[in-house]
């Protein structure tokens, strides 16, 4: 390992600074929310009505997606399995801690404290997912120092964009197609555009997979597939909205999976299946139904969206990814533009169509709960009538379907613009010389940042018997401990 990529000082120093800063901020500003505060409990408090029992199952499911699903999925390179899983672990852990503070800033602005509960952890996990999606664009070409810096800046960029869109533009985006998938995709593309490596366009000797790494990556796909309904439904309205979100997500994932197998076999020259298609394209339906996941779009529409998303994602991997690298200086390593960008745009368009088609004949009075910005404003006599039918219905903005659709379009363009700008700024910071960035030759290789075992089969490095003996000794010591 050369001095320029040594983590001996860089990583501990960065972690120490970040931990000291967060210790101070947590001590000053973070406290329990009402459901976790013992002082607010009494003999009339029913423990089973605590929000923990409503929110924790979704938190646990998304936790599995973040740490196991993404971790295994990103371990697809033959010589980069340690880095794919462990850097995901490192980045995700920091991103969630940091997101609690950054997202809590807006709460602090109003009442002087950040009230922490399981729902805050769940929101922080969604912010973390944004970072991990962006990580896919630069995997294999960045150091852990650079990844922590990316999370450090992306979380605030994302949180401010999310706050501005939800507060001022006000949109429907239950599954996060706009604010999670599109933002993460174009932020990652902005970063990789700045970190462009022309010598990697022709490929890299270590940019390969293996039998074991592909199996591990498919395991990640399966974890993401199984828990994606929780991801899409976690923040929807409880009851029928959440029920529809789960149904639509499963149907979309199912149809995209079948389509992926068919396309993979048809377009393979020898009529065989390609593991990369199974690992990535099968998940497209989960994104494509996101923007309309809680709406009355009908099961057949969810099925069609899964097919459309899968098809766009598949051809994006085959044709668009190479074009972006060769013509636009965008080396999208995991093809996040296909799985999150193209499908996010399809999903957002479908959401706009669903908004335009929404009527009281289809939804009944609950239309003004699902499309809350279309509810009558304060003072409108219709609001009082609706509140008799739906107690607790909040006043809206009185928007028409056409007006809300235009706001959705504005949110798409605003989010993409903010994410690209944020990604390019972050990329410039990550490009600084002291960030321990690997050289072109050292990309996609665990040996640059890890002590690897003696059976690590790097393409150009052969372990000596002394290395193997030392590893066996260390393994023996660890097993005794």
TrEMBL record:
GO biological-process terms attached to the record: ammonium homeostasis
Location in or out of the cell: Cell membrane
Boundaries of every Ammonium transporter AmtB-like domain copy: 21-433
InterPro entries the UniProt entry points to: Ammonium/urea_transptr (IPR029020), NH4_transpt_AmtB-like_dom (IPR024041), RhesusRHD (IPR002229)
Bilayer-spanning residue ranges: 12-32, 58-80, 86-106, 118-139, 145-166, 178-196, 216-235, 247-267, 300-320, 341-359, 405-429
Keywords: Ammonia transport, Cell membrane, Glycoprotein, Membrane, Transmembrane, Transmembrane helix, Transport
Membrane protein topology class: Multi-pass membrane protein
GO molecular function: ammonium channel activity
Coiled-coil intervals, chain numbering: none
Alphabetized SUPFAM superfamilies for the sequence: Ammonium transporter
Superkingdom field: Eukaryota
A Pfam family hit: Ammonium_transp
Annotated family: Belongs to the ammonium transporter (TC 2.A.49) family. Rh subfamily.
Known function: Functions as an ammonia transporter. May play a role in the elimination of ammonia in the gill.
PANTHER family assigned: AMMONIUM TRANSPORTER, AMMONIUM TRANSPORTER AMTB-LIKE DOMAIN-CONTAINING PROTEIN
Protein name, UniProt field: (Atlantic silverside) hypothetical protein
The organism of origin for this protein: Menidia menidia
